[in-house]
Design brief:
Length: 157
C-alpha cells in the first residue's frame, strides 16, 4: 500500500510539473518565444542560407541562380559561400543579441555569372562587417545593421 501511494504521488507531481511547463510556455508572447529561441546556442552549427537583404520592408532577394550561406562555429569562427567564393572570419555574439563580425577573408575567384553576382558578393561581404545585432525567430536568422533598420535575412538551409 505504501508503494502505491509513493508511485501515485510521484506520478501526480510529474503531471503537475508538465502542466505547469505547458501553461508557462503558452502564456509567453511571440516576442518572448523569439527571445528564448534567439539564444546564442541556436546560432552555432547550423547552415544558414541568405534569402533577402536590405532595409526592413524593402528587402531584395538574391539574384536568381545565386546562393549565399553562413555557418557559425562554437569557437567564434564563421565560414560560408558568398555567391562565388568561400569566406571565413571571426565573430563575437552574446545571448542579448549583440554581434560583431571581423577579420573576414575570402578566396578571390571571378565569377561573372549569373550577371551581377560579383557585386552582390561584394555587397554581402561588406554588410557582414557592419552587423551589430542578431535575432533568431520563427522567420529565421536576422543579422541587423544600420541601427536595426536593415538586415540580412537567412533561413535554415
Amino acid at each position: 500500500m505504501l508503494r502505491s501511494k509513493t508511485k501515485t504521488g510521484f506520478i501526480g507531481k510529474g503531471i503537475f510539473l508538465i502542466s505547469l511547463v505547458c501553461l508557462t510556455l503558452t502564456s509567453c508572447s511571440s516576442d518572448d518565444v523569439g527571445k528564448i529561441w534567439g539564444k546564442l546556442n541556436e546560432l552555432v552549427g547550423i547552415s544558414w542560407e541568405l534569402k533577402s537583404y536590405g532595409r526592413l520592408g524593402e528587402e531584395q532577394a538574391l539574384i536568381a541562380g545565386s546562393e549565399i550561406t553562413i555557418e557559425f562555429e562554437s569557437d567564434n569562427q564563421l565560414n560560408g559561400f558568398s555567391g562565388c567564393n568561400t569566406y571565413f572570419g571571426g565573430y563575437n555574439a552574446d545571448d542579448d543579441g549583440n554581434m560583431t563580425i571581423s577579420d573576414t577573408g575570402s578566396t578571390t575567384k571571378y565569377c561573372g555569372t549569373p550577371e551581377g553576382v560579383d557585386k552582390q558578393e561584394a555587397d554581402y561581404l561588406y554588410l557582414l562587417s557592419v552587423v551589430a545585432n542578431y535575432e533568431i525567430n520563427s522567420d529565421g536568422l536576422h543579422l541587423f545593421y544600420d541601427n536595426k533598420q536593415s538586415a540580412l535575412h537567412f533561413k535554415i538551409k
